[in-house]
Every structure is written in C-alpha cells, then in structure tokens.
Amino acid sequence: MTATDPALTALASGWSALSLLHGRIEAHIERALQAGHDLSVREYSLLDVLSRQHDGDGGHLQMKQVADAVVLSQSATTRLVTRLEDRGLLTRYLCPTDRRGIYTNVTDPGFKLLEEARPTNEAALREALDEAARNPELAPLVKAVETLRIPA
C-alpha cells in the first residue's frame, strides 16, 4: 500500500469525519453546560459516571476505571475529582476493606446539579446531532450514533 492508496484515503477520511462529529458535539454540549450549569463536559461526565455507583460487589469504581470511563489519564482524572471536591460536588473516602483504595462519591449537591444539567446535556446532544445530520459527510455517522444501543 502506498500513501495514496484509496483504502487508506477512505480510512483517513472516515476518521476525519468521526473526529469532526465528535468535536462539534462536544463543543456544543460544552457551551450549553457551561452557560447553564457552570460545568464542563468532562465534569458532567465524571459526575454521571460516579452517580451510577452502588453499594455491593463491584459497585464502586477504582480511579483507573473512572479515568477509563471519562477518557482521561489517571492524573487528569484526579485533578478533575479534586476540582469537583473543592466545589462540594464530590467526596473521597478510604475503601473500608482496603485502606489503600480511595473511593469517590457524588454528594447531594452534586446529584442535584447533575439532575439539573442532564436535560441540558441531552438537549444539546440532540441539537448537535440534528445539525450534523444536515451535513452529507456526517449524516451516516449521526445515523450510526442514533442506532447504537450500548448499556450505560
């Protein structure tokens, strides 16, 4: 294969379109969350992931699992947790069965903010997808996103 191979060119074009769609959606949601709730997309995602934790086996996530879920490095996730903890939206505590482990939970004010922000996030996502669907290059990707059925 050469650099001008049609298969590579098509692959690069597909990746470029996917990257463009992601960037547009994220920017649209970011503006809406910042304006309405003083939250970034990453902060919202972190609150959302942590809000799904539960008591019992496998109910609480380790920091690496949280980092993977919000697509950040562990150090960036720790800094994000610290910022939200400073705002009173999260709290950390030692794992009761392994004193080396630290869990992070959403506080009542964090749950309240998340519930207030969820409709904003969903509306901004819908708006961004609708706008992208009008672009012939992005329309097939929008359709693919809309038909995915991945459990939360």
Description:
The chain is mostly helical and 152 residues long. It has helices at 6-37, 41-51, 63-70, 74-86, 108-133, 139-147, and strands at residues 90-94, 102-106. Strands 1-2 form a two-stranded antiparallel sheet. Helix 5 packs across helix 6 (139-147). The longest helix is centred in the N-terminal third of the chain and has 32 residues, at 6-37. The mean pLDDT is 90.
Mean pLDDT: 90
Sheet having the most strands: 2 strands, antiparallel
- Shape from CA axes? globular
Distance between the termini: 39 Å
What is the succession of H and E elements? HHHHEEHH
Low-pLDDT runs: none
Number of strands: 2
Give the structural class.
Answer: mainly alpha
Instruction: Please give the share of residues in helix.
Output: 55-70%
Strand content: 5-15%
- Give the helix tally: 6
Instruction: Trace the largest sheet across and list its strands.
Output: 1-2
* C-alpha-based Rg, rounded: 19 Å
Summarize the helices and strands and which ones pair or pack.
Layout: H1 6-37, H2 41-51, H3 63-70, H4 74-86, E1 90-94, E2 102-106, H5 108-133, H6 139-147
Helix pairs in contact: 1-5, 2-5, 3-4, 5-6
Notable traits:
152 residues, globular, 65% helix, two-stranded antiparallel sheet, mainly alpha
Question: What's this entry about, in short?
Answer:
By secondary structure, the protein is mostly helical.
